[in-house]
Amino acid sequence: MVLGAMAWMTQGVVAAEHFRIAAEVERNAAESRAFLEERTRLALWRMDAAGAAIISRENRMPIDFYQKPTEQPLQPEIRLYFEIDQYSALKSPQVLSNKSESLTNEMIQLKRHLLDNASPEDFWNQLNIAIQNEENAWNAIPKIEIEPPSKPANRQREDTYQKSSNIIERSKRAAAVQKSVENFSSGSPPTAELADLATVDHLADETSNEILDIGEMRSRWFGKELFLLRQIFDSQTQTNAKTPIAVQGVWLNRDALSQRLLEEIRDLLPHATLSPAEGQRAVDDPLIMVSFPFRLQRNEAIAQAAAVPFTVGLLLNIPLLVAWAAVILAVVATTLLAHGIIRLSERRASFVSAVTHELRTPLTTFRLYSDMLESGAVKPEKRGDYLRVLSREADRLSHLVENVLAFSRIERGNARSNVCTISVSELLDQSRERLEARLATAGMTLHMDGLLDLQVRVDTAATEHILFNLIDNAAKYASQGQPPMVTIQIDTKSNSKSIFLLIRDHGPGIAESERFRIFRAFHKSARDAAETRPGVGLGLALSRRLAREQGGDLTCQAPSQPNNGAVFILQLPAA
Asked: What's the pTM value of the predicted model, to 2 decimals?
């Protein structure tokens, strides 16, 4: 129930956190896009201002500038000035002044771009139609009427707001460029929005009396080349049906012009480029310039709102993680506590069962034999055997009670130790008689091999208790081994820090799966044998605890061969 409640609460909290993060990411992305659009509009204003300056400068050129030889140097963005009459005759003031090979080649290329193998009449009509179409496109841009969107702070991040603003700004730029061109055409000073325009080195004071009107310069693509073109009208033509008698133009260097325009916006869009936008001047594309038919390629990464993973919302919520950690810790602690309680209950049940079984047999023997001795039913020559049986059962009960009390003292931490320095030989001699007597009851013998006068620092009583428990186990489970003998010897790996005693029998041995479990309290190995052998499964657990209390250890060594007996290693601290 706790984990279910936490999962439900986590889902709600993470969903709210996920929504908050997603909203913040979307807001940041929208702000990034809005900032890019603001820089784009400012960049287009700068480039159109520079473009209007170039158009206005060329618009102020007098008619006779195109008809007479001139030595005026060309601007970097201009390749050639030229004039075409109604008979498709082509001339250039630069070529008239200097018939160099380079300029002559320029004229040949110009004829190829403009005439394109067309007849003079067809070319003249197509040229004027193209100029008129460009004029109509110019006139269409300022006529775009859009209600300006409201401008609260929270709407500036909306894409619809930015789109509307771009279209309105393009309309304003077109109107400003048109106004600048008209003002310069009439000799008026430049507007404040289009200041810092280039000047013309040579202007004619008067124009021919035969000229009625001069059209405005308009930019136009022919193939991959860019031109500025204007029409010259006959003075005899009616006002409502003006007929062009010549077209004057400027062949532009598109690369140099693009570079000049881009230099105006390097601080705003450092990676921007310009691409041709032929036939798209009146199209609803806010990235197309109005002065020259270029489309701005920003080449800037536009931030997009990315999906927020579920884990991000979880990891960013520190209180939720702390709550989960506390719940998991509580669950683990409760599980361990329950497991410990269950194990304690099992140990108590095992202890009661084992002790009950161990007490029943000797008490039954005591009752039966004492009744027989009291009633005189036992012959005098058999009384000694009966008394020896009673003594053996008394020793058995005494050993059982001694083990239980010693284990209880260790569990409560009340065990007392009397540590002293003693040789291994002396230590074993003190308990040899008791050990041999226990083995004798099972028909076994004790053999001590290679015991040196090595000094150990141990609690002699505890060590004797350990040795007796090991011998007692051998008497219970290895009495049928061949030979029926238990060997105690010093291991060769003994060193200056520890002495290792090997206690070996020749019984059935201990299975690999049992070698670690036999040291658990109330666990008896070889279940079939354990059911027929006395004991509560406490001797080895107690012996290991006693050995470790002294700074040593007790382990069971894997036998070299199956059914080769059990080998216990008792580690004692060297003096």
From this structure: 0.50
